[in-house]
Write a structure and sequence with these properties.
There is one protein chain. By secondary structure, the chain is α+β, with helices and mostly antiparallel strands. The chain has two domains: 50 residues, no CATH class; 95 residues, Glutaredoxin, CATH 3.40.30.10. The chain has five helices and six strands, in the order αββαβαβαββα. A hairpin with a 5-residue loop joins strand 5 and strand 6. 21% of the residues are buried.
Length: 160
């Protein structure tokens, strides 16, 4: 008795997924790419936007950030602290959303003890706020939501 091949639909699914993934990278000019022989047009709203402003999301150290000419928000914490890890996600999200408008850094407090000492940090996570000239404006200690952090930034008027 011959066995029926039960994996045929799975093979077709995998082949279809591979065909979907294989293609060319979109061109900046026409925003189209080939997908299994068919071209798909990407709306201009979704297509990559070229910016004139300097990207700030890739700045990794405080010295470089303070020279960027934009407000700097620094979260100090550790990887072993649950509220610190939660705030890391918020900081990463804001770094992308506010690219070119502000610098968001997440620094390990154990690797930046001198900064923590100068700022008088006693509780983590802690957030330090610097204005666009690089001068310290305020600090807050303890975890906070994205909305609370944005409200604090707005209230401090760091762009002045």
């Amino acid at each position: 008795m011959k066995m029926k091949n039960n994996y045929a639909p799975l093979k077709l699914l995998v082949l279809g997924a591979l065909l979907f993934v294989v293609g060319t990278i979109p061109d900046d000019e026409d925003h189209a790419f080939a997908l299994s022989g068919a071209a798909i047009k990407i709306p201009p709203q979704i297509a990559a936007v070229k910016r004139n402003a300097k990207s700030t999301k890739d700045i990794a150290n405080l010295d470089e950030a303070l020279k960027a000419g934009v407000p700097v928000i620094v979260k100090l914490g550790t990887d072993s602290c649950a509220p610190c890890r939660a705030m890391n996600l918020i900081i990463k999200e804001l770094a992308i959303e506010q690219d070119g408008k502000a610098v968001f850094l997440s620094l390990d407090i154990y690797k930046n003890r001198e900064l923590a000492k100068e700022a008088g940090i006693r509780v983590i996570p802690a957030v330090l706020y610097y204005d666009r000239k690089g001068k310290p404006k305020a600090k807050s200690e303890g975890g906070m939501s994205k909305e609370q952090l944005l409200k604090a930034i707005e209230d401090l008027e760091l762009n002045k």
